[in-house]
Amino acid sequence: MSTPKKSFAERLFVILAVGMCLYQILNSEYNIFAPIENQNIHLFFGLTIIFISDMIKAKSGWGKAINIVFIVCGIIGTGYIHFNYNELALRAGVLTLQDTVIGCMLIVLAIEACRRTFGLVIPVMTVTAIVYMLFGSYTSGIFYHGGFSFARTVASLTTTFNGLYGSLLGVSATFIAIFMIFGGLLNATGGGALFMELAKSIGGRFKAGPALTAVISSAFMGSINGSATANVATTGVVTIPLMKKSGFAPAFAGAVEAAASTGGMILPPIMGVGAFVMAELTGIPYYEIALAALIPALLYYLLIFMVVIFYANKTMVERVVFDDIRPVPVILKEKGYNLIPVIAIWYGLFRGYSPTTAGLYGIYSLICIALAVSMAGSAGNALSVRKWGEALTGIVRSPR
């Protein structure tokens, strides 16, 4: 049966997704652009990919047209910043009508992209803050401030390279991008399967085996992708049905997977966005933050283990016997090479290198290992343009 032909928008999405990942790796290695320019290019890719993705999903012509308008506006807005970067930096505070128009455009696009990706909470908070910035001079008491003009408000959020082009976008354009690429590639080349098999071997022998497997696999996966949503989507499709089959209540099974996946955001070496932002804002090296999080993360998972075991004993769930459980040493002997990229990241962090450099170590070692395994004749990790393209595309198409 032939594969359905992709539309132009779907092909463009793949090109942009692969292009974004390759750009992030190259710029992290060679520092092609200045930090603000890098953030702007990162923003261009992010906005364009979000709106193209929604355009592909749109069922009506009107919906597709709106997304096309957003895409064009995103290209114009980020293009204006890119080609006028030096001029904008030199005349900071001296605003033109074009600056204000482009700034408004970027603010609207960023808020809309955030709404589509994360829901209404963050956009509503953002709009509230902007309204307060504009009209706070009409209040009294502790909420009063001297007031900001419309043009100054827009400029402070965009063209003076604060607000939108602040530390959060900087963290996303450097640390988070590299580690998301690493996590996606590791999962695509067999790391995810290794973690799942290790989790099954460790926890699958107990009465609460399926739930313990969910906890362990989510901890493993969370430690290398830092995303609770991606973690649930990766491991939950396997562990939740297993838990339900063994007698765990559906709500409890979902809660176990959600809690275990969320814990991955504080489990080193690769933690959630908050850890990178903390390192950026406080100036504390990332590896120190990761070390400080290790014991709380282990205690968190110990508590989940205890809850799962108590629940299993109390509700008398049936024991599910896994037919394919193998000893941990056997698994590590066969697939343990997939852990080398994670060790490479730990090595980079403990040597005092930046998280970006450590992430590059992990990516490069992963590629080398995949090449070696491919040349050795292992089909599981065989390299192909299609496979790596799908892996890179899947990184930017993470669940949302």
Task: Show the helix and strand layout.
Blueprint: H1 8-30, H2 35-57, H3 61-83, H4 85-90, H5 97-118, H6 121-135, H7 150-157, H8 167-188, H9 191-203, H10 209-225, H11 228-245, H12 250-263, H13 273-282, H14 286-315, H15 328-335, H16 340-350, H17 355-375, H18 385-396
Helix pairs in contact: 1-2, 1-8, 1-18, 2-3, 2-8, 3-5, 5-6, 5-7, 8-13, 8-17, 8-18, 9-10, 9-15, 10-11, 10-12, 10-14, 11-12, 12-14, 16-17
Structure overview:
With 400 residues, this protein is mainly α. It is 74% helix and 0% strand. The chain contains 18 helices and no strands. The relative contact order is 0.10. The model has no long low-confidence stretch (mean pLDDT 87).
What is shown here, in short?
With 400 residues, the protein is an all-alpha fold. It has helices spanning 8-30, 35-57, 61-83, 85-90, 97-118, 121-135, 150-157, 167-188, 191-203, 209-225, 228-245, 250-263, 273-282, 286-315, 328-335, 340-350, 355-375, 385-396. Helix 10 runs parallel beside helix 12 and helix 10 (209-225) packs antiparallel against helix 14.
Provide keyphrases for this structure.
400 residues, globular, mainly alpha, 0% strand
Globally, the shape reads globular
Largest sheet: none
Order of helices and strands: HHHHHHHHHHHHHHHHHH
The percentage helix is: over 70%
Alpha plus pi helix count: 18
Structural class: mainly alpha
* DSSP strand tally: 0
